[in-house]
Amino acid sequence: MGARQCRFHLDQGGHSITVVWESRSRRAELLVDGKVLALARTAPHATTELRGEIADPTGAPRPFTVRLADLPDAEPLCAAVIEGRQYLMPLTPLTGREQWQNEPAPPPRTPAELLARWRHRRRHRHRRHHGRYRHG
After folding, report:
1. CA distance 44 to 71
2. pLDDT along the chain (136 residues), means of 10
3. How far lies 53's CA from each of 36, 56, 61, 104, in Å?
4. CA distance linking residue 63 with residue 77, whole number of Å
5. pTM
């Protein structure tokens, strides 16, 4: 994968949660409602955690964590953990040229479900790219 910038986005409880990750500078930003709440340096092929807060309907703060996983030879994954529930954050376009219709927020997933989904995609991608040219 070449150097690039990725944006992950999730609308949750009336709040906009966004993570912007620059692979070349190894820097991640967490924004809530357009305001930067956390910055972090990321390590290659590692998971980085960013912490933030959103307000519930009564105005009480609800802390949450975002996990950004830089996976070797695969698209990065980003998930928000809010009140013990994990939400996969879809990759969204950065510019009008990259514009596509945003997907609805997926339902919460357990870490085991996310890992099983990632393994399935990785096996499928591996077979698709390497299955035809096996040397034996």
Report:
1. 8
2. 76 92 91 94 92 89 94 88 93 62 64 83 67 51
3. 11, 10, 6, 22
4. 21
5. 0.66
